[in-house]
Design brief:
single chain, alpha/beta, Alpha-Beta Plaits, Maf protein, 3 domains, 17 strands
Length: 413
């Protein structure tokens, strides 16, 4: 079964808001065995919406649209649906009753006629009830394609998906099993990883596909198995991953998105009752951001200091001005002093520190752009290293943060 996701709204096309609906829907569809062929964003324009509906008609099984269902004049999706499907609007009494009650309860005022008109829907649609908003979803079967329209407000769209659309899709369509397993690797680039597993990849059965998902400092290997027998798919994936461990076990650190380096570091620290602090210069708080994105990180993360200037390093982390003058601000000695300072300030068991030239200009002319020094202070000693991470700036920052956490993981775990 194949689907296309369409988001409607000029605000998306001018960059005023970021489309998060498409990613959520694509991931949700995948979980129930529906493949997304395309995601596109279109304007609040009748002709554009009509041409999109016409183009997709009978080309895919399912078209999911979000946006354009509000109460104002620029929300034209319902009227455009009526034009395309040669239909007319009718008032759905259940929706109107809900809208009136919701407005009175939340807004503390009577519902206006504009609010009540949210209950107008194409006569041939099946209403997908929106329990947290005023605009219902709409399901229309037309020839070989199901068209579904939902509000663009993310939490309303998600509510309709979870409580109405997903159950209906699962009841209506026969779908294959799609199972993903993602292997997380750190420390080697995509091309080197591909070279090491080339023979294994060539021997994969046709119902298993491999995708390389590289990012600075890490490569995810996603295996996707598709078929009608869930148990056999699980068994084959397990066997293939066992083979993968035999080939590149030295760089594999976990499985799936919930076993990233920051998650595993956190699990180790929490289980051992240990704590961590960070002192960041060139990474600008990225390490702290990655750590605190994990629920429950307050159990082991004491805090962090972004000491971007030399003055901040001396005032906040007690780094000696003489040391900076002698060794340079981008040096292992300065990074080590920062780590020790953070360890002492936060009374933490472990402390990570970074300092470097992220670019595009060099903060320390003694070091090349992309040079990053990392230090780790532990209960059993201190460690330092220097990395050359190239450019651009965004890559240096992200890779330095990943390398620092990976180093902590390998050193302590």
């Amino acid at each position: 079964m194949k689907a296309v996701i369409v988001t409607i709204g000029d605000e998306i096309l001018i960059g005023q808001i970021t489309d998060t609906n498409s990613g959520y829907l694509a991931k949700s569809l995948d979980k129930i065995g529906i493949a997304t062929l395309e995601m596109r964003s279109i304007s609040d324009d009748r002709a554009h919406i009509l041409s999109t509906l016409k183009e997709l008609q009978n080309q895919v099984d399912l078209v999911l649209l979000t946006g354009g269902l509000g109460p104002t004049k620029d929300d034209i999706t319902k009227k455009t649906f009526c034009d395309y499907f040669n239909d007319h609007l009718v008032r759905n009494q259940e929706v109107e009753t809900h809208v009136v009650a919701l407005i009175e309860r939340v807004m503390k005022r009577p519902a206006s006629q504009i609010n009540k008109d949210q209950a107008l829907v194409p006569s041939r649609c099946e209403v997908l009830f929106n329990g947290v908003g005023t605009a219902p979803g709409m399901w229309i079967q037309h020839e070989q394609t199901v068209f579904v329209s939902m509000p663009g407000v993310p939490y309303e769209m998600k509510h309709i998906w979870e409580h109405a659309l997903q159950p209906k899709l699962m009841q209506t369509f026969k779908r294959p099993f799609i199972i993903h397993q993602t292997v997380l690797t750190y420390g080697q680039g995509e091309s080197l990883v591909a070279e090491r597993i080339e023979a294994w990849e060539d021997a994969l059965p046709p119902f298993i596909k491999l995708a390389y998902l590289p990012s600075p400092g890490r490569v995810r290997l996603r295996l996707t198995a598709r078929g009608t027998d869930e148990q056999s798919l699980q068994t084959e994936l397990k066997a293939q991953i066992t083979q993968l461990h035999a080939l590149i076990g030295d760089i594999i650190v976990g499985m799936e998105e919930d076993q990233t380096i920051e998650v595993q570091v956190g699990q180790f620290l929490a289980e051992k009752g240990l704590t961590l602090a960070v002192a960041e210069s060139c990474t600008g708080g990225k390490i702290a951001e990655m750590i605190t994105a994990i629920a429950g990180s307050s159990r082991y993360f004491r805090g962090g200091i972004v000491a971007y200037t030399e003055t901040a390093k001396t005032d906040l982390l007690d780094v000696s001005p003489e040391l900076i003058a002698r060794e340079g601000v981008v040096s292992e000695a300065t990074a080590l002093a920062m780590a020790i300072g953070a360890q002492q300030k936060f009374q933490a068991d472990f402390a990570l520190a970074t300092t470097g030239n992220a670019g595009p200009s060099a903060g320390d002319p003694k070091q090349a752009l992309g040079t990053v020094c990392i230090a780790l202070a532990t209960p059993n000693g201190t460690f330092t290293q220097t990395l050359s991470l190239g450019q651009p700036r965004e890559k240096v920052i992200m890779r330095a943060a990943n390398e620092a956490l990976n180093w902590l993981y390998k050193t302590c775990i």
